């Protein structure tokens, strides 16, 4: 699979100028031998992780935080993907405020592989632009897109699933990895699978998908879980860039046109001007709604891999070690008559918990959160209230 | 009641030396005309208020804290007593670490009126020494002792009750003020009253007391409350110093001898030496156990006065203003789906509460407490655990 010829282009770009990342030697892209495409990884690193306030902030979003080890969720995602695609074939899409910290956290990645969005416009423009840029470098490439701020416990299961997905992608499918639901979650989208096998390898099988469905209400989520046919959509997408761009041209012609224009200028002196003109005109659409819910060419690889979106403090708490009372502490904690709680401190204060159950305490130098775990989603409303009060110093 | 002749002695002492407080002009004490004694106030300022950790600390105990207004509990106690005894006739008994902050909080009190105990030995030695010192200055004095860290809402009711108690004291009784119990509290002692009236004035009546009883268990506390005969003992004692010292000589002869020796040396150059020799030998006994539970000469003045011992965070919470959701905040608080909670901050952090009921949050620069209000008493065990871990920096 290794194709050294694509790497020098990035090496060259790196030497040229950080302000013109992904300087493309267009001769290089078209001069190669015929091949069936290398695997490229794309890591959309967007969103601030509002529900993990006050740890996550606009300038220090969830994906930059070392929540589950000394490495951040972004670093863990990059580590997980390195066995599938080397740093030279990995693009990270992020906002302008996060380019520097991303480069700092991933020093062995070419800074030219950072695709900096001028403003956030959702996953559609972000992932489509990455696909268009890769297509210019390697028209036969298979790419896989994986969120920067999710957790996967079982990395081997993850790698096997991606390998199956790559085989299905090579056969012309838009492939997603689907996670067997463990509860009637209303916060995720679902994928309905059929029993029609598309490919089978030693690592598993890909099935034709009946449909992508948006976040359901609780009653519907229950029927989904009971049916056994529905899988969680964790926004893991694997496809040949050519397949995807062809589908995008059909379903989202404006978006296709825009990202093609930007990708054409990406390694040139005109890049900034083209981005400034075109980016604000791109439709704000998600990949799910804009493409996956509208195409019949979707396949799904079901895989259990200990996945979590680390979505809120309750979810994070379930991923951390706890003692026999269910207490998790990243803090100088003293507790009595307390259980099933998480105490996280970024200060060196003593924290004492007395007679409490099922709470999360998050202690930072300028903001303190105490939340009932059952209402962890509601942290969003606190951030909303602070936003309305113009308290940007703690957001 | 005003007897200007006793004041100059303190004025003189104040000019002489702070290290020899209460310099007594013994000629002055015995040279006067016959009189029935002025009223003197004694404020024992001991105890750190462990259950109000982390706000109360060994160096900044409960009585020094401005918990209910901008004035500390000590200042509020002194303010309350000023109508009964001027600063010149008020003694404050405290530990060596607290002399300076007490003097700072009460700048209009003669520093010579601070009686500094070398080590804490309970209320028996503290109050007995104050009585012995007052007796040397004014043998016919009536004194009243009132804890420095309790709250009284209805100051007029308090003043009326003390006036009645003074009349009963002049008739030779050891008088206490008893508070009608509003719940079967197991944390206080009780006073059983008889219906035998000792004195009646326009302000109310004093009754002979049947007995002082120690903190009961819950079942007994319930029968006490139902009986209507039992009152809470809030350690408010009013007596002629002569009556008290005579009783002390009978019931606690060693303590009587010791405080008499110290009082005799109090205003002299020998004071420090005598204190150093005698104080450590004094029996560690409370006034309740050592005297009040053993004497038949006890009277009680029942009085409702909105009293609280401000004993723990739940109790403090009930004294503070709250909004329609029962939320009390001395903090930059944002809350959602929360009620009946108290948030107290000594920092300028934003504090957010989500989905919580019946909790207290106390935020200080080096320690944070979160406690279920129903278990507010258990804060003591946290302080115990920190003490055992030698965490004196936060105690």
Give average pLDDT of chain A, whole number.
90
General shape of chain A: globular
Q: Give the total of domains of chain A.
A: 2
Helix and strand pattern of chain A? HHEHEHEHEEHEEEHEHHHHEEHEEEEEEH
The largest pleated sheet of chain A is described as: 5 strands, mixed, barrel
CATH superfamily of the largest domain in chain A: Spore Coat Polysaccharide Biosynthesis Protein SpsA, Chain A
- End-to-end separation of chain A in angstroms reads 44 Å
Instruction: Assign the CATH topology of the largest domain in chain A.
Output: Spore Coat Polysaccharide Biosynthesis Protein SpsA, Chain A
Relative helix content of chain A = 25-40%
**CATH architecture title of the largest domain in chain A:** Alpha-Beta Complex
Uncertain parts of chain A: 1-35
């Amino acid at each position: 699979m290794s194709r050294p010829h694509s790497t020098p282009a990035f090496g060259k770009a790196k030497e040229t100028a950080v302000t013109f990342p992904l300087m493309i030697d267009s001769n290089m892209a078209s001069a190669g031998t015929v091949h069936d495409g290398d695997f490229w990884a794309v890591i959309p690193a967007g969103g601030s992780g509002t529900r993990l306030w006050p740890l996550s902030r606009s300038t220090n979003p969830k994906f930059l935080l070392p929540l589950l080890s000394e490495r951040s969720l972004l670093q863990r995602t990059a580590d997980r993907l390195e066995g599938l695609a080397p740093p030279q074939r990995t693009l990270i899409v992020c906002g302008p405020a996060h380019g520097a910290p991303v480069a700092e956290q991933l020093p062995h990645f070419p800074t030219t592989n950072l695709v900096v969005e001028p403003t956030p416009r959702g996953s559609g423009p972000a992932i489509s632009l990455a696909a268009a840029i890769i297509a210019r470098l390697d028209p036969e490439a298979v790419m896989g897109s994986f969120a920067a701020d999710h957790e996967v416990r079982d990395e081997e299961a993850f790698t096997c699933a991606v390998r199956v997905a790559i085989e299905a992608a090579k056969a012309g499918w838009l492939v997603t990895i689907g996670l067997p639901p463990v509860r009637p979650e209303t916060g995720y989208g679902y994928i309905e699978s059929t029993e029609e096998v598309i490919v089978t390898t030693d690592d598993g099988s890909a099935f034709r998908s009946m449909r992508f469905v948006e976040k359901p209400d609780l009653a519907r989520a229950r029927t989904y879980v009971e049916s056994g046919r529905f899988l969680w959509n964790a926004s893991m997408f694997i496809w040949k860039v050519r397949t995807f761009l062809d589908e995008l041209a059909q379903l989202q012609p404006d978006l296709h046109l825009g990202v093609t224009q930007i990708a054409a200028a990406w390694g040139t002196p005109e890049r900034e001007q083209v981005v400034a003109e075109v980016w604000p005109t791109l439709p704000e659409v998600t990949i799910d709604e804009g493409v996956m819910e509208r195409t019949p060419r979707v396949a799904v690889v079901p895989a259990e891999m200990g996945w979590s979106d680390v979505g809120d403090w309750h979810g994070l708490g379930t991923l951390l070690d706890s003692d026999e009372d269910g207490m998790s502490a990243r803090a100088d904690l003293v507790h009595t008559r307390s259980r099933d709680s998480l105490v996280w401190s970024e200060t060196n204060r003593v924290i004492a918990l007395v007679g409490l159950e099922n709470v999360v305490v998050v202690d930072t130098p300028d903001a303190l959160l105490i939340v009932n775990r059952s209402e962890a989603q509601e942290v969003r409303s606190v951030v909303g209230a602070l936003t309305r009060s113009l308290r940007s110093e703690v957001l």
